[in-house]
Specification:
Layout (H helix, E strand, L loop, with lengths): L4 H4 L22 E5 L15 E7 L1 H4 L18 H10 L3 E7 L11 H16 L10 E4 L8 H18 L4 E8 L9 E2 L12 E5 L24 H13 L4 E6 L23 H16 L5 E4 L3 E2 L12 E2 L2 E2 L1 H13 L3 E8 L4 E7 L7 E7 L7 E5 L10 E4 L12 E4 L2 E6 L4 E5 L1
Parallel strand pairs: 1-2, 1-9, 2-3, 3-4, 4-5, 5-6, 5-7, 7-8, 8-9, 10-11
Antiparallel strand pairs: 11-12, 13-14, 14-15, 15-20, 16-19, 17-20, 18-19
Helix pairs in contact: 4-5, 7-8
Length: 435
């Protein structure tokens, strides 16, 4: 979901065997954050992740005339992409540029295929990872181009992808938001829009939000809720990929939760809007990342980096509020710090409405493992649970609960029990460190 600068006020079960998939990424290469150009503050968000997805407005590059030659790194409105993206890469971030032509009317493209190809080639030549300039490692061709027909999107996609390939073959090409099964929503394109163009993209992209209801409340549920299509939509795309485009990566580039300190307005389109609490936002974001890491997904980017505490759809999704950390900022930082060097290994327990427990391993230090456990509920009580870790239980030397503040994570008591570890498990994940 993208809110324009004007609108935003801005320029398996216990003991089961996991299916055979490609090796999971390290969590530091998996966790990502959606950001917006000049508003982003690199130093502030350094504790959270190293992957950034930037909404890159193409109108900044050529104005109203899509046939106009670009003058990278400068934009027509005076922004220096070289300086901007350079400051991000210098701070250690990897950049995925979502090339936003969505706000441009389709009729304003004079020669869509040709103009898109020229733009793509110029962008890749300047920003591609093969060059000497601040690198962009991947490019998305559109975000949610809802105002474009499937045919119009295909023409621009094909042209731009060919240009990007010609400009720098090392640059990863990512589709806009796609949807596999059922009637596509207004913000996603069906797979038929790019069928036959598999050689022109490297990554299939999807947006998925945990909506329990849509208009007018836009109420969201806890991540593991079996009654919502949150994870199923992603699994559907993975299954399509396996059958029709094996080898392509799958990225979730938008998901998240709204939390505001303000009530919904008494009147207007957002009067029935329902958010979650700041604490729920933090816990559900981390549980979402954990569940996603156990799927055959290569990256997941959270929406959004900052908000201005507006009680409406997608306007309270930041992990900072007025650039001050929310509980979700500290929770995501804890996740990144605890599991950054680790990757998902296997499911220890996964019970609907009950215990979830995943194992993560450190490939650089094979003896190191972290087990993360939580109760997959909304509003449930915590209680002692047996984590069936078998012989690995003897090596557990520390346990801590997810922190929602700047304070150090709270240490959690645990004890050896027949077959595993007994520890108090609740909605906030607990991390257990051992061999």
């Amino acid at each position: 979901m993208w809110r324009s600068p004007a609108a935003a006020g801005e320029a398996p079960a216990v003991g089961s065997t996991e299916p055979a998939h490609r090796q999971r990424p390290l969590l530091r290469d998996f966790l990502g954050l959606n950001v917006h150009t000049v508003k982003f503050r690199p130093a502030l968000y350094a504790p959270v992740c190293r992957r950034l997805r930037d909404y890159h407005p193409m109108e900044w590059d050529f104005g109203k005339d899509s046939s106009k030659a670009t003058q990278f790194p400068m934009t027509v409105n005076g922004v220096d992409w070289g300086q901007l993206y350079g400051s991000w890469t210098k701070a250690g971030y990897d950049i995925d540029a979502c090339l936003m032509f969505d706000p441009i009317a389709a009729a304003n493209w004079k020669d869509p295929g040709h103009n898109a190809e020229a733009y793509g080639q110029a962008f890749a030549r300047y920003f591609g990872p093969s060059g000497a300039n601040p690198p962009v490692s991947s490019v998305e061709i559109g975000n949610e181009p809802s105002k474009y027909s499937n045919e119009q999107y295909r023409a621009i996609f094909e042209g731009m992808a060919r240009g990007l390939r010609a400009g720098d073959a090392r640059l990863k090409i990512v589709t806009c938001a796609m949807m596999m099964t059922g009637k596509t929503d207004p913000w996603s394109k069906p797979m038929s829009a790019i069928t036959g163009l598999e050689d022109l993209y490297d990554v299939l992209n999807i947006h998925s939000y945990p909506f329990k209801d849509k208009w007018p409340t836009w109420r969201r549920s806890y991540p593991e809720d079996p009654t919502i299509p949150y994870f199923k939509a992603i699994e559907d795309l993975i299954h399509w990929r396996d059958a029709h485009a094996p080898g392509k990566e799958v990225w979730l580039t938008e998901f998240g939760y709204d939390s505001s300190t303000k009530p919904a307005p008494a009147k207007g389109p957002w009067s029935k809007w329902v958010g979650v609490t700041d604490e729920q936002q933090a816990i559900y974001i981390v549980r979402s990342f954990l569940c996603l890491s156990a799927m055959d997904v290569d990256r997941a980017y959270l929406y959004f980096f900052n908000d201005e505490d507006e009680p409406q759809l997608h306007a309270a999704s930041g992990i900072t509020r007025h650039f001050q950390p929310k509980p979700s900022f500290y929770a995501m930082s804890h996740l990144y710090r605890a599991l950054g060097d680790f990757r998902f290994v296997r499911t220890i327990a996964k019970t609907e409405g009950g215990l979830y427990c995943f194992e993560y391993g450190n490939p650089a230090v094979p003896a190191e493992h972290v087990y993360v456990a939580w109760s997959a509920t909304e509003g449930g009580k915590s209680g002692a649970q047996l984590l069936p870790l078998g012989k690995n239980a003897a090596g557990i030397h520390r346990a801590e609960r997810l922190t929602l503040s700047k304070d150090e994570p709270l240490k959690v008591d645990f004890k050896l029990a027949p077959g595993g570890i007994s520890v108090e498990v609740g909605e906030a994940p607990v991390f257990l460190f051992g061999p």
